[in-house]
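Onboarding guide, step 5: your first structure request.
Type a short instruction followed by the sequence, for example:

Predict the 3D structure of this protein.
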Amino acid sequence: MEKKTNQFWTLRYTMINVLYFVAFCTVHAYAGVYLLDKGFTNTQVGLALALANILSVFGQPLVAGIVDKGGLLTNRIVVMFSSLFLLIGAVLLIFISNEKLPIFVVFVMMYTIQFIYQPIMIAMNFEYAKASCKINFGLARGMGSAGFAVTSFFLGKAVAGYGTSVILYVTIVAMALMVAVVFFFRKPKIVIGEIIESDNNENKSESSNTTSNNVLDDEEAANNLFAFIKRYPFFVVFLLGSACCFFAHNMINDFLIQIIRNLGGNEAQLGYATFLQAILELPVMALIGFVLKKINERHILVFSAVSFFIKTAILMFATSLIGMYVSQSFQMFAYAVFIPTAAYFADHMMKEKDKVKGQAYINSAITLGGVFSNLASGKLLDTFGVKTMLGVGLVVCLVGVVIVLIAVYPMMRKYKKQSA
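The system replies with structure tokens like these:
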């Protein structure tokens, strides 16, 4: 009976991940394709994505802080209404398809909201896990990547054949299903014979019987950035290194169509490339829970950072589409390793009342890397070309690798000694 219940929760959480990443593919992976088709220049695309990233850098910890306090705004509610917003935004874009300013505003808001609620969705997994709703997070997240992969594979061909309006229709269908699935994804009062809190209080901490890995639950939350930095200095340095690695990662993802065109490809190859990198994430993410039992999180995070560097280096020196595909294959060692490992790392290191903020700050770091990437990449691309853009990304990524090394080894050891 317990096994079936566990599979049921994993199945439903997997559906949430799959639908989210179907829309993540349409809104993020095809952002450049959509905006360029609407008459935006590379620099304008970069500015649009940079603005969306800046807004989400501030929005992610703000929303997470509210959720951490408990009350009516729970993880589930945020995920459901954010998905509804994306649905409405896609519908609006259909009716304003020839007006650049409204397209800019609506698309930026959609891009922002989708980033804001990604860490909330991750935190929901750990929240439900504490309520005995056993979920295989790695498998669910990996299937999300598979959903991204399949969407990208077919979307590339569909856009090439029918135009960018296909992107909006896929987003509408995915988000309509997402709202329905999340609506019924309620944390029950009883799971496997164990009484827990009701869905109306699903986000309140269970301070009577739960402790984090480091401290008791009744300790005050770090409710502002300065308090968070003081409490977790090593983690903040790690976030800085992560932002540098994701500078290169976001550069590649957001301007991949331009990179592919430079190598002689088109939207069809974009679909194949994103399919390849996303489908390779599935086995890695599905097995990451097992790997983390054998290897320390810090070692895995450093391995991931180095893989981001190698991926960027291969793409920079690629002279054909084959090199681009080889670079995309390193997604399984870079992004696919980093995302679930960083989620477990944050949940393990954060005090109970900071756990949602911990997930949010990871996404904020990723987003911050996207901010600087978008601001720099569009201009570099228009002025100097693809190779120069990738060269800058490679240097910034190398800096990120060094910072991650410092954060998770020497600095973290020093912090643990001080805490002891």
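Each response can be followed by summary notes, for example: Residues 1-6, 190-218 have pLDDT under 50 and may be disordered.
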